Amino acid sequence: MDYKEIVEKALEAREKAYCPYSNFKVGAAVLFEDGKIYTGCNIENASFGGTNCAERTAIFKGVYEGNREIKAIAVVGDTSTYTYPCGICRQVIAEFVVDTSIPVIIIKNANDYLVKTFDEILPGIFSKKDLNG
To answer: Transmembrane segments in this chain: where (predicted)?
Structure first.
């Protein structure tokens, strides 16, 4: 898989972040089964519980459009280090992952990123399979 497009879209999404409290911009891009890449940024709120992460913003957009299977996800935060999805986002990703070997691209910049599998960043996921037996 060529990661150039998904990396670029995550970097572009980062620039749309609304983060007046932390000043920590995050962007995400998610490839779904329909072949489209949905993007999102973090959106903060004075009531911190009302804040939404970039990954969840992108996932929710894709799900709203009828998708149910993530094929790849890319995330960028601080461009001087690698920013991984938080725990809540990892669990939301798990809800829409059929194949846990999907690529998770952790981006510093357009030329510097890591590619992990979802299994590597969240082994032993708790999913709807666990609830349905």
So the answer is: none
pLDDT averaged over the chain?
95
3-class SS letters over the chain: CCCHHHHHHHHHHHCCCECCCCCCCCEEEEEECCCCEEEEECECCCCHHHCECHHHHHHHHHHHCCCCCEEEEEEECCCCCCCCCCHHHHHHHHHCCCCCCCEEEEEEECCEEEEEEHHHHCCCCCCHHHHHC
| The CATH number of the domain covering residues in 4-125 | 3.40.140.10
**pTM assigned to the model:** 0.94
120 is catalytic: no
Cβ neighbour number for residue 95 with a 10 Å cutoff: 14
pLDDT score of 129 more than 80: no
Catalytic residue among 5, 55, 69, 120: 55
